[in-house]
Please model this.
Amino acid sequence: MARMDLKHVGITVLDLEKMIGFYESLGMQLKNRLLLDEKYCSDRYSLYRLPEGTYANICFIEADNGVRLELFQFNAPEPFIPEQWNRAGQTHICFATDDLEGIYQKVMEQGCEIVVPICRGLTQDYFFFRDPEGRLVEVGHPFEF
Model:
């Protein structure tokens, strides 16, 4: 059977520089920046198919294990819609760490809303918070069971 690894997760943000700084403060590294020009974003054969004149600045931020976040900031963003757990679609992203308390403190120092404080789950100790733009993020430290 073919091997398949997670490479990246794409997230549209409202303020690219703010979100780069936030994820760097948690230990991720900025890898590169790109521009998706108007033609690329609005061409009818493009994945995006956005209104003419739309463009995006994007970047890749990498975790220690090589998985990346692909952050997009469009020149004409739509408002953020919070997750609804019983609606099909993405609900949150999760990071694993060997320093749960340290990351918890960094998140609190950034002024993020703690949704679930550190607690013990079925497979890991974890907490949930909202990033500076309101997306739900989980951070966990797996344990042996």
Observations:
- The chain is about 15% helix and 35% strand.
- The chain has a mean pLDDT of 91.
